[in-house]
Amino acid sequence: MNWENIISAKRTGDGSTNEEQRTDFQRDYDRLIFSSAFRRLQNKTQVFPLPGSTFVHNRLTHSLEVASVGRSLGKIAGAVIAKNSDLSQNTQNFYNHDLANVIAAACLAHDIGNPAFGHSGEDAISDYFRQSEGKSIAGKTLRELFDDDQWQELCDFEGNANAFRVLTHQYKGKSSGGYRLTYSTLAATQKYPCQRAAKNRNRRDTKKYGFFISESETMRALAQEVNMKPIQEVPLSYFRHPFVYLTEAADDICYRIIDLEDAQRLRIIDYQTTESLLLRLMKSFSNDEQHSKTCATLNTIGDNNEKTSYLRAKVINELINTCAEKFSAHHHDLLSCTMEQTLMDIVEAEHPVLKEIEKISIEQIYSHDTVVHIELAGYHVMSKLLDLFVPAVLTPSDERSSKQKKTLRMLPEQYKPDNTSSYNDVRLVLDYISGMTDLYATEFYQNAFGFEVPKHR
User: Fold this and answer.
1) Mind giving me the DSSP string for 418-429?
2) How far is the C-alpha of 312 from the C-alpha of 279, rounded, in Å?
3) Between 354 and which of 195, 252, 293, 348 could a Cys-Cys bridge form, CB atoms 3.0 to 4.6 Å apart?
4) Which helix (H) or strand (E) holds 237?
5) Under a CB-based contact definition with an 8 Å cutoff, are residues 45 and 117 in contact?
6) Cβ(204)–Cβ(192) under 8 Å?
7) How much is the average pLDDT of 296-310?
């Protein structure tokens, strides 16, 4: 890998444009902003229940903020790379002006495959298959309808891989190549560039997986176009593309700091604790004079929420600059595929308050009753919807019950079974259900089963 051969304006499906007003990479960002899948993120849980009297982040606002941080990271890192006089003029122009667009677009897309109800939605899909392997469908068990790799994938649903499918899959009546993003932007989304069968929790870049069996050939084309180095061919796995470290850092910065801010607004974490953590983190980046100025400004603000917002902005700015510096400092490791840590891993080692924030998030935020309640409700809703659609789609058309036929009429045309294989048909059902918002999934459940989901009190 080198800074010249890891970029490409080629798109999935079809290719080029003669438009002069916007670059291909700016168009990636615009396509995502105006997409229905991105718009649906406004009603998908980030951490805390939706809606509520206190405004907190959902998947859409989180993704917009990650994209803002990512744009800054790409701008700073790109300007450093562009100073390399050995690069062609076109390549220098890309790093000076368009790496920021690539990272911002990748950040917009990073959660686009996440189902409703936060991570419990992923768990519900996985558990449905694990718990239903013996379910009888047309004389066979559910498990018997899939080969080993397909079954293991279904039992381990992964939002990152689902995002890659949403972005690249051609659905009925839709354009080839999905959203037709550039390969550069897609590479910047591939945080875990391996199949489920190559998943290895001992490595940072394969502790999850980034593409389904159905998108393996698309991934091969992507890797070839931007010169991603293979780890192995069977099962398919690649070393990370350098750009994805910036996308990952933007996400890490936002959820690490903004989840804390939301928790303070909801009074899950008290203001004094929040202030202490953020001030100590700021102090680790600054000298005594700078720290005194920060404290002086803080003392002029009367509202605790505004104080937290001020500290959050200051901390994020420091993390952006530091992560961009680490990216530049480790460019040899990035290009030689020997980078074993994330950028935030490196920053955290030098600023241990980040570890304290993570510990509090795990122990007090992500396990809070309000979070667990919505996860349990979502778990039930998703499981029931899967049990409605999966047997219906897998039963041969001439053996379907009246209820199953009516169930399949509810599927939009683009998600109806194509009868090529059980795996492909179930994958289409999962596309439909995972694309639902919290509200739509809940309303569908209520209409289909005649029950109400208990509301958060």
Assistant:
1) -SS-HHHHHHHH
2) 10
3) 348
4) strand 237-238
5) yes
6) no
7) 93
In the three-class reduction of DSSP (H, G, I as helix; E, B as strand; rest coil), residue 238 is classed as strand
230 strand-pairing partners = 238
| Cα gap 218→439, rounded to integer Å | 32
Q: Is 18 exposed, middle or buried (0-12, 13-18, 19+ CB in 10 A)?
A: exposed
Query: From the CB of residue 49, how many other CB atoms can be counted at a distance below 10 Å?
Result: 20
Say how many C-beta atoms besides its own lie within 10 A of residue 375's C-beta. Answer: 20
Q: Is the pLDDT higher at 85 or at 83? A: 83
Cα(380)–Cα(378) distance, rounded to whole angstroms? 5
Residue with tokens 């615009």: 30
Q: Which letter does DSSP use for residue 176 in this model?
A: T
Nearest Cα to 245, choosing from 75, 103, 80? 103
**In the predicted structure, residue 456 carries a pLDDT above the cut 70:** no
> From the DSSP assignment, how many helices (H) and strands (E) are in the chain?
21, 4
**pLDDT per residue over 409-425, tens digit each?**
999 999 999 888 999 99
> Around Cβ 213, how many Cβ atoms within 10 Å?
20
Apex CA 206: angle with CA 205 and CA 210, to 5°?
95
In the predicted model, what is the mean pLDDT of the chain? 90
The pLDDT value recorded for residue 312 is 95
Cβ(349)–Cβ(255) below 8 Å: no
**pLDDT given at position 248:** 97
Task: Characterize the bridge pairing of strands 140-141 and 136-137.
Answer: antiparallel
- In the structure encoding, which two tokens stand for residue 14, read together? 């079809």
Closest by CA position to 395, among listed 152, 148, 146, 142 = 142
Amino acid at 256: R
pLDDT (tens digit per residue) in 196-244 = 999 998 888 899 999 999 999 999 999 999 999 999 999 999 999 999 9
- Is residue 250 a contact partner of residue 69, using CB atoms and an 8 Å limit? yes
Extract the runs of DSSP E, i.e. beta strands, from 323-396: none
CA distance to 21, 84, 312, 349, per residue, from 225 (Å): 25, 23, 39, 35
CA proximity to 193, closest of 169, 226, 170, 160:
160
- Position 356 scores a pLDDT of 94
What is the identity of the amino acid at 282?
Answer: M
CA-CA distance, 133 to 143, in Å (whole number)? 5
> 286 phi and psi, to 5 degrees?
-125, 165
Question: In this structure, what DSSP letter does residue 45 have?
Answer: B
